[in-house]
Amino acid sequence: MNEVLSYLRENQARFLDELCEFVAIPSVSAQAQHRSDLKLASDWLVKHCRNIGLKVKRHATPGNPIVTASTRSAKSKNKPHYLVYGHYDVQPAEPFDLWDTPPFTPTVKGDSLYGRGSSDNKGQHFAHLKAIEAYLATGTELPCDVTFLLEGEEEVGSESLGAFLKAKKADFQVDGVVVSDNGMPSLKHPALTYGLRGVVAFEIHLVGPNRDLHSGIYGGAVDNPAMVLCQLLGSLRGADGQIVVPGFYDGVESLSKFERTQLGRYPESEAGLKKQLGVRALFGEKGYTAVEQRAARPTLEINGLTSGYQGEGSKTIVPSRASAKVTCRLVPNQKPKQVLKVLKQFLVKNCPKSVRLTFEAGHAGEAYMVSPDGPQAKAATRALQSAFGRTPILMREGGSIPIVTDFKEILKADTLLLGLGLPDDNVHSPNEKVSITALNKGMEMSAHLWQELAQCSS
Ligand code: BES
Ligand code: MN
Question: What gap in Å lies between CA 25 and CA 118, rounded to an integer?
C-alpha cells in the first residue's frame, strides 16, 4: 500500500498533464456540433484505460459511446467487485466571453486547473483511474475488482445508459457502486453524500400571431406571447418561494431532527454564501436554512427564456412566439411523472385562449437516498479520513445523478457518493476549475477505499 501511495505522489505532475489532454477535448453532449468530440473523448479514455492495463470495451449506443474498463480476469476469483461510474461529457461552455482562459485550453493557476469538465466530471473519475493505475503499476494486489463505467450523456439525461444496464446487467454483478461526481464543502471537510435530489425537465412553447407584428399597429388587440409566458411562469411560485401548483409537494416528507442536525453541520454561513455568489439577499421558503433548501427541498427553476428580438438596439414588435426551459429538483417520494402531470395541468388550465401552448416533457430522475451508516459507508468514511486527515461529514446534496437510482433498481447496488468538487469549482458556470489538491487527495482516497471495502462484509 505504501508503494501505491508513493507512486501516486511521484507521478502527480504527469497525471496533471494527462488530465489536461482529456479536458482539452470539447465533449459537450448538449450540442450536435460536438458529436465527434464525444467520440474523441471516448477514444482518449479507451486508450488511457488500456495503457493502465485494464480490459477495455467501447460500446456503441444510439447516443454517445459507453466505455467499460475492468481489472476483472479469470484469475480474479471471488474478490468483491465494485463499479466506478463517471461521465466524460461536459456542459456547454457558453457564455464564452465570461471565461478568463478559453474553456478547452486547460490552464493551471496556483492549485487550480481551469477548463470545462475539469471538475464535472473528467477530473473526478480520472482520480479513480489513477488509483487503479498505481496498484497495477506497482504490482500491488488490488483487494477488490473494479469496473469503470464511463458514459457520454450524463449532462443530457443518460438516455443510453439505462438501456445498456438492463441489457448487460449480468456483466455488472457488483457489491456496490462508487461515484465521485459531486462535492465536498472544503478540503478540510471531506464528505460522504447520502442523498441527491431528483430532477424533471420540461419546455413550454407559446405561439400567438402567425408572425412578429408591428407593436404600434397591433399591440393591445393581439396578446403578447412573451408577456403571457412571464405571467404563466410567475404564477407557479408564491412570494415566499413556495411552488403553488396543486399536488407539487405530494409525498414530500418534512425534515427529521436527524436530517436537520446533519445538514446543520455543513460548514457554510448564509453571509458567506451571499458573498461567494454576489447576491445582496438570499431567497427561499420560510423556515428552512439555505443548506436545507439546497439539499432537501424541491424547487422549480427557469433555465432559459427565448422570445422576440435579442439583437442590438430596439425593435418594436409583438413576438409571435415565446418559450421557456424549466427544471424542477425533486426530493424522496416525489414522482417525476406525477410532478410533470400537475405542472402541465396547471399551465394548460391557466393559459389564455389568445396563445397556443405546447408542453414538452424532457428527462427525469427520482431523488436518491442511501443509509449513511452501513458497512460500506463506514469503509468509505475511513478512506476519506485517511486521505484528507479530517473527520468526514455526512451530507445531502441538491444536484442530481439520475443513473444512481438505476444502479439500485437494475443492479440492486447502493452507491457511495464521494465528491471531490469544491463549492467554488464553478461547475456549469464560466471558469470551471478543479482543485489539484482535491484530485491528489482523491486519488489517495480511492487507493484506501479498495482496502477498506475489501475488509467490510458486503
Ligand atoms: N455532477 C453533477 C451532479 C451533482 C452536482 C451532484 C453537485 C451533486 C452536487 C452532474 O454532472 C449534473 O450536473 N447532473 C445534472 C443532471 C441532469 C442533467 C439530469 C444536474 O444535476 O443538473
Ligand atoms: Mn454536471
Answer: 11
User: Distance (Å, rounded) from C-alpha 139 to C-alpha 141?
Assistant: 6
The continuous run of DSSP H or E covering 357 comes out as strand 356-365
Please determine, for residue 458, whether its predicted confidence score (pLDDT) is greater than 60.
no
Distance CA 439, CA 8 (A): 11
* pLDDT tens digits, 277-313: 999 999 999 999 999 999 999 999 999 999 999 999 9
Which pTM was predicted? 0.94
**What does the alpha-carbon distance between residue 112 and residue 122 come to, in Å, rounded to a whole number?**
14
Domains of the chain: 2-196+367-457 (3.40.630.10), 198-261+294-365 (3.30.70.360)
Helix/strand/coil (H/E/C) assignment for every residue in 28-89? ECCCHHHHHHHHHHHHHHHHHHHHHCCEEEEECCCCCCEEEEECCCHHHCCCCEEEEEEECC
Tens digits of per-residue pLDDT, 444-453? 999 999 999 9
pLDDT value at 120 more than 70: yes
For residue 315, the tally of other CB atoms under 10 A from its CB is: 12
Q: Is 87 exposed, middle or buried (0-12, 13-18, 19+ CB in 10 A)?
A: buried
Pocket of ligand 1 (CB under 6 A): 120-121, 154-155, 157, 181-183, 196, 199, 363, 365, 397, 399-402
Pocket test for ligand 1, best of 154, 300, 363 (most atoms within 8 A of CB): 154
The answer to whether 300 touches 340, Cβ cutoff 8 Å, is no
Cα(163) to centroid(ligand 1), Å: 20
The length of the chain, given as a count of residues? 458
